[in-house]
Amino acid sequence: MDKLRVIFMGTPEFAVPSLAALIDKTQVLCVVTQPDKPRGRGHKLQPPPVKVFAQENGLPVIQPPKVKAPEVVAQLAQLKPDLIVVVAFGQILSQALLDVPRFGCINVHASLLPKLRGAAPIEWSIIRGETVTGVTTMQMNAGLDTGDMLLSSEVAIGADMILPELRERLMTVGADLLLKTLYLLRRGELHPVKQDDALSTYAPLIKRDTGLIDWTRPAREIHNLVRGLYGSARAGKLKIWRTQLTADNLSLAAGEVKIVGQRLFVGTGDGALEVLELQAAGSKKLNAADFIRGHKVGDGFWTNE
C-alpha cells in the first residue's frame, strides 16, 4: 500500500512530535507554518519550531501570511495531497482548502471535544481547574473546532501540574493518536461522531489581561491561574511563576504579604497562598527565599493599579 501523501500545517513546539511521527509513516509533501516573527530585545526574526524541525529533516516549507489566499490554495492543490494534517497551526482554513485533499483535513486538538474549543485549550484546562483533559482528532469543517470527532485520549491533570508539563504530555499523546487515526483511515475503519454543541465550551486566546491576579479571588482559583499561565500571571510589578496552596493558618487580607522565615505568603479571598517563584521587572526568576533576601517585599508589590 502506497504511503499517504500529506501536507502538514503547524507552528509551535506542540506540533513537532506530530510532524516527526508522520515522516516515517507518510510521504510529507510540504510543511506549512506561520511566518517568522521578531522576538527578544533585538527583535530579530525567529523561525517557528515546526520550520526548524522541517528544515533539519529536509522537508520543503512555505510560510504564507494568509493560507486561505487563492494563490496559496492553488499551490497546495498542485501537490495533490491525500490528506492535510493540522496541529496548532494558528490560521483558519477556507472551505476551498478543506476541499483540496481526497480525505479532507484532520486536526489534532488538545482537548476532549466539544469542551475547550478554541486557541488555548491547554491553558484554560488548568485555569478552570479541570482534572482531566486530553486530545481529540477531528475531521475539520469550516467552523472553529466543530468538525466530527474521530479518536480521543484522556490525560489526567495533577493538582499542581503546570502548563509546560501538561503541554509536553499532550503533544506526545497527540502524536500517537494521530498515527492511530491515520492507520484506521487507511483501513476504512474510522467512525466520525458529531459533536454535541450543547456541551461545548470555549478556550479563547490568552491576552495580557488574562494573567492579572485579583487577590480577592479564592486561593485555588489564583493557584490555577498561575499554573495555567506559567510565567504570564502578574501582580503589580511582579510575574508570579509558581504558587502553592497552604494549610498554614494565616489570617491575611486579600493582597496582604507576610514573610515567615524564608517563605512568602499572600492573602486571598479565602485564606493565604504561598508564592514559590517570582520575578521582578528587569530581573531573573527567583525562588521566594532568594527574592526575599534581595528585595524589599511589601503589599504595594501586589496591586495592579
- SSE ordering: EHEEEHEHEHEHEEHHEEEEEEH
User: Which term fits the overall shape?
Assistant: elongated
Q: Nearest-angstrom radius of gyration? A: 22 Å
Strand order of the largest sheet: 5-2-1-6-7-8-9
The CATH superfamily name of the largest domain is Formyl transferase, N-terminal domain
Assign the structural class, choosing from mainly alpha, mainly beta, alpha/beta, alpha+beta, or little secondary structure.
alpha/beta
Strand content: 25-35%
Q: Return the domain count.
A: 2
Q: Under the CATH scheme, which class of the largest domain?
A: Alpha Beta
Report the strand count.
15
What this model shows, in words?
By secondary structure, this protein is α/β, with parallel strands linked by helices. The chain has two domains: 5-199, 3-Layer(aba) Sandwich (Rossmann fold), CATH 3.40.50; 208-302, Formyl transferase, C-terminal domain (Methionyl-tRNA Fmet Formyltransferase, Chain A, domain 2, Roll). The chain is built from eight helices and 15 strands. It has helices at 16-25, 49-56, 70-77, 95-98, 121-127, 163-187, 219-229, 288-294; strands at 5-10, 27-32, 37-39, 44-46, 61-62, 83-87, 105-109, 132-139, 148-156, 233-235, 238-245, 257-260, 263-268, 271-280, 286-287. The strands form three sheets. It has a seven-stranded mixed β-sheet with strand order 5-2-1-6-7-8-9. Strands 10, 11, 12, 13, 14 and 15 form a six-stranded antiparallel β-sheet that branches. The longest helix has 25 residues, at 163-187. The model has no long low-confidence stretch (mean pLDDT 94).
